[in-house]
Structure formats: structure tokens, C-alpha cells
Amino acid sequence: MEMRSNMETDYLKIEKNARIRKRTVNVITYILLALWALIVLFPFYWMLLTSVKSYGAYNSENIPQFFTLSPTLENYVEAFTAVPLGRYLINTTIFTLATTAIMLAVITFAAFAFARLDFKGKNIVFVLFLSLMMIPNELVIITNFVTVTNLDLRNTFPGLILPSVTSVFYIYLLKENFEQIPDSLYYAAKVDGTSDLKYLFRVMIPISKPTLITITILKVIECWNSYVWPRLITDDENYFLVSNGIQEIRENGFGRENVPAMMAAVVVISVPLILLFLVFRNKVMAGVSRGGTKG
Amino acid sequence: MKKLLRDSGLKGWLYLLPAILFLGVFMVYPLIDVFVYSFEEGYNSASQTFFGTGTYNYSYVLHDPYFLQAVKNTFLLVVITVPLSTGIALLISVGLNSIKPLRNLFQTIYFLPYVTNTLAVGLVFMILFKKTAYSDGLINLMITWFGGTAVDFIEGPYWARMFVLCFYTIWVVMPFKILILTSALASVDQMYYNAARVDGTSKLRTFLRITLPMISPMIFYLIITGFIGAFKAYSDVVALFGTDLNAAGMNTIVGYVYDMLYGDSGGYPSYASAAAIILFAIVLTITCINLLVSKKKVRY
């Protein structure tokens, strides 16, 4: 009898210990996760905070303050008036929309040819395309710079846009998607006398919409953040994109070092993509895990 | 049916034409041209003439102190950030997978750096770490809280500058790694864990013997892409230290290529080409080594 109750208390003790251990592990997990969340969020908080501090208040802070009691929007006005931030934003929008649109057309036609059409040399061309995926941008950018300069396309939109309107990887992604559409649909359409082009637009594109949206989002992110090529190819402020604009502001914007105004510009530049992400959260994350490369 | 499809021979090429045209002009031709450039000695971009061919450009680049500095910086960056970021990402992903409430919120937050402009947020990091005449900056304030002495991370000693660069790089590459690892962890068959629990296997042993081998292909994928990405570091360095990276002593190999091509010391496409080819050779070699190692260690 005594032995039994002993066993019972032992058992309860073990169970209790296990529960405590589990809870401790859980608490530690949450603390660590919250810590990383803090590290990620803090720069965003700091840029928002600094962007609403007035120039005078910011510069008189010998010790940085973690909050402000007198927020102001004057830095945003300054950011749009003292430097052509609006111009940069418009340029980036034009660049992003044009590049993405042209690329979508180019890759859709190419993927259609690879997935649906039958012609001599198709497989060889496809293998050649795939082998191009290995080529890093850094290797070809030198000649492209010379080419675009020789074509007198520096400081023009075609010069900015044209080198990045094809992507072998996206052609590959879309081709895989097109190939999953049953052949019977194509044959039926053929018998009905539907042209290839019509079939592409009426059947294949609507079915592959999720993949096309993913590609669009990834390309938009890439365009909005592109820095290297625009920097090489533009030295006229009228054609700067936001990344170059930020660099320009950093190096000689706002006369003196006006950090609050800089931060206001940073906020304005960051907001569009963050909004895009929050709206299409699942699509963006699914897309990046399928075809993202940054990192 | 076959006959029906025969007539699309020319049509196929027509649909491919835009892609072939763009790839030809902006990828295939430059790829050949970059090798040609790299062997043309004394190329002058104004008159487009050169003296002769040979390996002088390579030997110039390999003896240039700026290039050696760039190689040193890049290797340090790679060696520090790739293992660290992959390890921390693994830790965070395991943590994320073990909780239910707030998981979505954490995932959303962790992903934010992916969708931000590297140049813009880099500016914020610079402000946080910089020591100016009137203020030591926020990070230095925190350092002094814990009894340390303030140091200028942006224009101060080399280790401090390297620290900010590594910190920012990890901050930037983390979202991708966490995303890939959490989905890899979630896809491990629950059956294995149940079997381990029945056997009374400890948590650590379960992780080492089941989880790690199951997700090892993804870890190796991240290591390889991490190596390639870190070797090409450039924009985040510019964001922190400005465009004149040679003066800051923080140039990277890619930065060296662009500086040779354009910018204050620019106008030498031959040197730029030679440096770019050296970079490509390094990346290719390391990727091959990685693949060989993973063949031995990873079970697919």
C-alpha cells in the first residue's frame, strides 16, 4: 500500500517537473523570438521616430531620445521640396512598371514556345537558356555599360529598362507551369480552329495567373530596390531612382546633414513595398520561397 | 495530330525572338566580350584601342592593394556572416515551429527586411551606429550603459566597421533563410517525431538525429546561396560607408569591379573585367566544393 502511494507521488513529481520544464522552454523560446523581432523592428521604429523630430530638437539631443512629445511633419515637406524626391518616386514607378510589363510579355511568349510549340532545335535552345542561369550579373554588366553608353542611352529610360527585361529563371518557372495544363485542352482548341495566340491569352494565361502574380511581385520588389545598374547608367538627377536618390541625399542632400529629413525620405521610399507586402503577405512569402534569391 | 503541330516550326522561333534578342545582346555577347576585354592590354575607352593581348590585366588586379583589401573584406564577410546567419535562422525557425500563438505575427515581422530598400535602411543603420561630434549615437549609448566605451562604427577602427557590416548583412539575409527553414521544418513528417516519442528519445537527440538530417538539403541550399550572395556584397556596403569604398577601406570585390568601371577611379573596363572573372572563378570554386561536401554529407 505504502509502496503504491510512493509510486504515485513519484509519478506526479515527474509529471510536474516535465510541465515546469516545458513551460520554461516555452518562455525562453518566446523571449528569444521577441528579441529578434525587436532587432528587426527597431530600425523601422527609429526611422519613423527620427522623421517626426524637428531638426532643432534632433540636433540638440546629445543623448538620443526614445520618443518625442512634439511630432512634426515638417521633415516630410522638406524631403519633397529640398530634394526632388517626388521625381525619384515617379522615375522608380515608371521604371518598375515598364520593366515588369515588358518582362512579363517576353517571358510569357518564350515560356509558351518552350511548353507548347514544337520546333527544331527547341531542346538545344532550352538547355542553352538554362545554362545562362549560372551567369552572374556582375560578369555581364561591364559590357552592358559600354553597350548602353555607345548607343547613347545613358540617362534615358530605355537604357535603364532594356537590360533587365528578360529572366531565364522566370521563363523556366512559367514553362513548368504551362506544361501542367493538359494537352487535351490544346488539341480541342486546335480542332475548333483557335489560333495559338488566342489559346495563350484565353486559356494558358488565366490558368497560370498565380505564377504570373508571383513573378510580378518578385520583379516589382527587385525593380524598386535596384541600385547598381541605375547608378552606372545615370548621372543626371532627372533619371535617378529612389536608391540613387537616397545615396545622393546622403552624400549632398539638404545642404547640411539634416538627419530627420533624410529619415523622412527613407520612410517615404520604404512604405510602398511594405504596404505591398502586408496586402499580399502570403503571395509574397510563397513566391520568395519558390523563386527568391536575396540572401 | 502530329501534322497539325508541324507547322509551328517558324512560329516557335518567332515567339522566342524577343527573349533570344534580349539575352543575346545583354548576356551572351557581354559574356564573350568580358573575356576579350580582360585580355586586352592598355585598352582606352575613349579611342577604343589597345596595345596588345596578354594577362597583364590580371596581374595588375592581383597586385593592386585595393583589390587585395577588397578580397580580404569579402572573405571576412563571407566567413563570418554565412555560418552565423544560417545558425541563427535555424534557431529562430525551430523556435517558430514550436509555438502556436503569435507565430504568424512573428513570421510577418521577420520577413520585413526582405521588402525594404537596402540603401534606405542601411542609412538608418549608419545613423544608429555613427558617432558624430555632437552625439555618440544610439548604439554607443547602449554600450556605455553596460560600462563600455563609445567607438565610431562607421569611421572608426577596422573591427568596428566590419562588425556593423556583418550585423547589417545578417539582418538583411535573415528573412530568406528563416522562410526557407520554417517551411522545411514544417514539411518533416510528423510520423518520425511520434516514433521518437514512443521510444522516449530526448528532444536534443530527436533534433540531431531526425530533424537535422531531414532538412539538411535545405540547409546546404542556404549555405550555397549564402556564399554566392555574400561574395557579391555591394549595395549594403555602400549604404553604410558611402560610394567611396576604397577610401573607407571597406571595398568588396564587386565594389572594386564597379569602381574600376565607373566612378572616381573608373574608366578601366579591362581591369574591371579581369576582377569580375576572378570573382566568378572564386564563386564557382567554392560552389563546387560545397556541392562535393554536400554529396557526402547530405541525404536527399
- The number of distinct β-strands of chain A equals 0
What is the overall shape of chain A?
A: flat
The number of helical elements of chain B comes to 14
Enter the CATH topology name of the largest domain in chain B: MetI-like fold
For the largest beta-sheet of chain B, the strand count, sense and barrel status come to: 2 strands, antiparallel
Catalogue the unreliable spans of chain B: 1-5
Helix content of chain B: over 70%
What is the C-level CATH assignment of the largest domain in chain A? Mainly Alpha
Number of helices of chain A: 15
Q: Give the SSE order of chain A as H and E letters.
A: HHHHHHHHHHHHHHH
Biggest β-sheet description of chain A: none
Whole-number count of domains of chain A = 2
Largest interchain contact: A-B, 91 and 98 residues
In the sheet with the most strands of chain B, the strands line up as 1-2
- List how many beta strands of chain B DSSP finds: 2
Mean pLDDT of chain A: 89
Q: What kind of assembly state do the chains in view correspond to? A: heterodimer
Output the radius of gyration of chain B: 24 Å
Question: Could you tell me how far the N terminus lies from the C terminus of chain A, measured between alpha carbons in angstroms?
Answer: 64 Å
